[in-house]
């Protein structure tokens, strides 16, 4: 039996030199993509933002963003190149962003997700997010509602155990099995 292992993934801070590749992923992932100037503006706000990329073989295959306000964090976006999906990259990105939020003294995290995006919802539930409301017609491209998710008490030992279990599952996952 031959096992094919994916290329090692490096998670690192996003910088302006990454934006061409990030925009390609954003455009392939969103029907109403962020613009270059939106990403540039976010990168300038280092005190309250954290943007990261997932890189394989010097190619960006995913990215994610975090906004921090006081003791709350907001996942602004997570996107993975369509050809690289179902390999645990979104899980790795969210794990890194969550650990970054905890390091910045965040106690609760929130995000919005399309009602129809079941795979993303399943990912967020694994991280302890629960639905807390709806933003009607949130997405301008098709007026789809957004579900508002929250994860509370992310600074506790119990949540730390959840993150450790997620990280362990990523490391033990056979190649090709979704995270």
Describe this structure in words.
It is a single chain. This protein has five helices and seven strands; from the N terminus they run βααβββαβαββα. The protein has 179 residues and is an alpha+beta fold. Strands 1-2-3-4-5-7-6 form a seven-stranded mixed β-sheet, with helices on both faces. Strand 3 (59-69) and strand 4 (72-80) form a beta hairpin. The two termini are 22 Å apart. Residues 1-5 have low confidence and may be disordered.
Quickly describe the structure.
This protein is of the alpha+beta class and 179 residues long. 34% of the residues lie in helices and 32% in strands.
Alpha-carbon distance between the termini?
22 Å
Can you count the beta strands?
7
Which structural class matches the secondary elements?
alpha+beta
Approximate shape: globular
Secondary-structure element string: EHHEEEHEHEEH
Sketch the major β-sheet: 7 strands, mixed
Give the mean pLDDT. Answer: 91
Q: Hey, roughly how much beta strand do the residues contain?
A: 25-35%
The count of helical stretches stands at 5
Question: What layout of secondary structure does this protein have?
Answer:
Blueprint: E1 10-13, H1 19-29, H2 36-44, E2 49-56, E3 59-69, E4 72-80, H3 89-103, E5 108-114, H4 118-126, E6 130-139, E7 144-152, H5 157-172
Parallel strand pairs: 4-5
Antiparallel strand pairs: 1-2, 2-3, 3-4, 5-7, 6-7
Helix pairs in contact: 3-5
